[in-house]
């Protein structure tokens, strides 16, 4: 079982409006494992899946020691129209508010 977390940034919210959702997965996870986890936990069918490895960061500690921040794997998932992943509801609400604003502007003209 793989732990998937939503990755919320400005870019990921913009992609979520287009039906592509960004998640973070462990670095050792494969596309097949990620795909089965998405199907079982979110009950959606992914059309497209892309993965990006993020580098681990090495930093110095106070007394000369080193510590590393383990890298992770960023996963971008393309879904069918209408399918949603919980945690990205913000993008859908923004889209609805945008449509309402456009309607109000057109009505005012």
In short:
The chain is of the alpha+beta class. It is built from three helices and six strands, in the order βαβαββββα.
What does this structure look like?
The chain has 109 residues and is an alpha+beta fold. The protein has one domain: Alpha-Beta Plaits (2-Layer Sandwich), CATH 3.30.70.330. The protein is built from three helices and six strands; from the N terminus they run βαβαββββα. The strands form two sheets. The protein has a four-stranded antiparallel beta sheet with strand order 1-2-6-3. Strands 4-5 form a two-stranded antiparallel sheet. Strand 4 and strand 5 form a beta hairpin. It starts with a strand and ends with a helix. The mean pLDDT is 84.
Helix-strand layout with pairing:
Blueprint: E1 5-6, H1 10-17, E2 20-25, H2 31-42, E3 46-53, E4 57-60, E5 66-69, E6 73-79, H3 89-108
Antiparallel strand pairs: 1-2, 2-6, 3-6, 4-5
Oligomer: single chain
Task: Please count the helical segments.
Answer: 3
Shape: flat
Spans where pLDDT lies below 50 across 5 or more residues: none
The largest β sheet comes out as: 4 strands, antiparallel
The gyration radius over C-alpha positions equals 18 Å
Strand proportion: 25-35%
**CATH fold call:** Alpha-Beta Plaits
Q: What is the typical, i.e. mean, pLDDT?
A: 84
Count of discrete structural domains: 1
Report, as a whole number of angstroms, the end-to-end distance: 55 Å
Number of strands: 6
What spatial order of strands do you see in the largest sheet? Answer: 1-2-6-3
Order of helices and strands: EHEHEEEEH
Level-2 CATH architecture: 2-Layer Sandwich
CATH class: Alpha Beta
Measured as a percent range, the helix fraction is 25-40%
CATH superfamily: RRM (RNA recognition motif) domain
Task: Classify the secondary structure makeup into a structural class.
Answer: alpha+beta
